[in-house]
Amino acid sequence: MQKNLYAPASRWTILWNKIKTFFSKPQNTILVIMGLVCTFSTFAPIVAIIEDTLKIHPGTIDQHLTGQAAGFTAVNYTDLFTSSIAKAHLWTPLLNTLILAVGSCAVAILYGGLFAFLVTRTNLKCKKYLSSIFIFPYIMPQWTLAMVWKNLFDSMAVTGTKDGLLAGLFGITMPSWWCSGMFPSLLVLGLHYAPFAYILIGGIFRNMDANLEEAATILNTPKWKIMTRVTLPLIRPAILSTILLVFGSSMGSYPVPHFLGLTTLSTKYIELNDRRTGQASILAVIMMLLGVAIMYFNQRSLKSRKSYTTVTGKSGQTSKINLGKVGKVLIAVILIIFTFFTSIFPIISFAFETFLPNPGDYSFLKTFDSANLTTKWWVTNENVTENGMYGQKGMLFNEMIWKGFAGTMLVSVACAITAGVLGTLIGYAVSKNRRSKLAGYVNSVAFLPYLMPSIAVSIAFFKLFSGGINLYNTYWLLIIVGTVKYIPFASRSSLNSMLQLSGEIEEAAIIQDIPWRKRMTRIIIPIQKSSIVSGFLLPFMTCLRELSLFMLLCGQGLILSTQLDYFDEMGLYAFSSGINLILIVTILICNALVNKITGASLDKGIGG
Amino acid sequence: MKKALALILAVLMFLPVLAACGGEASKPEKEQSAVQKIIEEAQGMTLEELAKKAIEESKGKTFYGVGNSSRGKSALPVFIEYLQSIDSTYTLEFDWQQPKNNKIFDQLTAEAKKATGTYAMTLIQDGNQIENKMVKTGILDTFIPKEWAEANKIDVASYKGYLALQTLNKVFMFNCTGSKTFDNCWDYVAEGAHGQFMDIDSEIVGKNFLYMLTADKYAGYLKDAFDKLSDAEKAAFQPTIDEMAQTASEFGLGENGKYALAWIKLWVGSYTAVEDDGPICNNLTDASATDQFGLLVYSKLRSIEESDSKSVNNIKVAAYEDGYEGIGGYGYCHYLFVTDNSPLPWTACAFIAFMTCTQKGFEAWGKDMGGYSSNPVVAAENEEIHNHSKGGTNEAGEVVYAAKNDRGYDWWVGDGELVLEDPAYCASVAFTVGSWIETLDKYKG
Fold first, then answer.
1. Distance (Å, rounded) from C-alpha A262 to C-alpha A260?
2. The pTM is what?
3. B168-329+412-439 carries CATH number 3.40.50.300
4. CB distance from A157 to chain B under 8 Å?
């Protein structure tokens, strides 16, 4: 009897009990499920796109070179890498892509970092206003500044197209390198992402221990040495984070290089896709590999960042550099003027464009005759093909535009909810099991899509969901892709907030036998409400203005950003400007509403 | 973690190979699809009979169409009105999309994999890609309306071509606010000339235009125009022409192929890429665009709203000028197809028949100059109504906008030396001349 009671359980029973114990913890169940979901959603599209590089596509170069209409071949690789077109189709776009990504990082860090320094470490005037207005370029669609750039600097003499505002009104023409190509592209992307640098670097500047710099000053250290040996090393983690975020995003940007005439991997993909489909897919694979490389550096930087945690403790002291009576006003004025052009002018410019009789027709500014203005782009309520309307109704009555607006809202809300919920669960589960390999894997694999260029993710999902399971041109596909791409926003936000929560809080509830669902909804989520809300907010805002991620997955009518692209390609700038305006106003209203309701804001706490 | 990643990568590497093993086996001859059967039946029916079928099929539903022309959106309401004239209770919602950047082929390919597609039909351009990607793959089916076949004296059973809605022309135009003239097609590729043109990688029919120049007929046009140049002008182009002789011979082009390749090389290296013909027209009609020129869709002139800066009178059609030598532009077709998984095949056939067999159906395109119905009866009726040959003339008979007086299809393919797209020829040189064009340096400003 005694013997039976203590008889060793069978191996299967032990295993079964272990499994039961493992899954009795909700965080483990979440990790397993999310591990499977994230593995599929991340790797299945990659498999699909790799397969596409080896497939023979009817009517394209691989069919011509192999003489077969179907099957598999490596000819796309050999042709792309070794033929006479390799330079034009691969190496030049690759080099441009890398220069663009590095240059955008440099501009974002220099401009955003300097701005952060001025706002947090000096007695600059108008900080609150400047802090709010500075993040506008990030809130607005990334091609906004590219369009403004073209409207300002294009000229008949240099770009050979039309006279922009400067050439048309004042006869000022800028050189070719200024008007299109690499310089404006990296500047525009740098300005767009500068708020990243501002938020990340500003956060450190604000909380940085001023004693370190003061100690160096007492030791008679030259100012440049203090900057290079003390200040810069302290903000290094933030610079690194900015590089990681900006590099991946700018590398995969399609609209900015497209509008500004720069050939990158993403623009080349679109260009080649019709006759070199397999080779275009290789370009997408290269973009993905660059994304994986970024993740590798991200992992390494996360490890190295630990060494800085001891010196970033808050001293409570603040040391503000005095810019002088004139300096603090003068610099503020300069910044106000500059931010006017990056944040306010685009809105005015887009609004003005919607009242011009012909696209880019600035007759009104030359004559001030109101006959040279029109409201036709807004109020036409019939199907007109004359006078440049091309059968489109005015924007106020255009069903397609308002259907697109509803579609954009639907996709944004759905992505925000799904990415927010899944990301929150991942953050929770990872924080509970932070030392387990599974948690590390889920955390990494969920973050990978964010580091991959949007257009590469888009291509991969297009290949995956335009076959047997065909979701092409459906809201479902946009929501799935948006969710996969934006889970990292929510998972990182949730993970950071969950790590701040002491385990004792939940343990107390477990002792009271409170079920997990109640623990989450009554204790954990309410405590970290604002961080979790921002995990929902970011996917929502980003989705509203997303083009690169969605442009290959649907026709132009489904959402506003693809409609904008369509109208712009058609040369109907009044419509594209109007849609841009609608998007900007929507984003600003949503941002203000969320700010009002939850207190969350991108620049919160930095502007003082 | 590393091991797991390595394992996943290894699986990824092998998956395509595995997929290849189970890949394309030889397939038996395909049976007619449901849509093809309907088309076969529809080809023997009159428009009115088709309309009744369409009413039965699509009443209260939504019709999705996709095309390279935005005018499909204008034609659909007229078609609905026609159906309502037969059944006053008939209603139809519609959505018409016009994908840019050659995306229409991706869109149709992706849609084709659905059991029932979204789009009922398409209006599509670029014969080369249509043949290789859409027709041979069974994605699109040709429907020939009975009345159209009769008007063109075609036997439907033996007809192997596509159904064209219209031929569109892109013509060379220049801003005439200055003194510069363009009296020879070689002027467009002369030193310092930068014509505005839709990028050949964005709108592939532009590339087809370049392919067609290498055909004997059009290479001959270029040679003839070259011969009319002054000695100094000839001397400027001769080195490029000589340089191209070897390449032309490698491609197996005719004796004048080198002239075509030289013109192509100079054009690709000099044109300013613009996103659409609409903006080109806007740019060229501006008072400040002195001496600028471009190759653009003729009908875009209609979109200009006269203002202090812009006027159609700021522009001239080069081929209409006295003494002009050489090619005047490029003509290509808009083809109509039913998708092989069309959700509304009868309605698609009726709509196609309506557009190609009635002036009202063609009206969305017919009111513009530079678009010529493929149905001679409709073309004649349309000209009678719109009188495009005097499109720029007012009621008093005075010429107000000379550029708008369209000289018509026959003039353009004759005296106008319009280069016409031939899908078969384009397909034959797409990866010889086409690949060579890809190696040329484009003008970057």
1. 6
2. 0.83
3. no
4. no
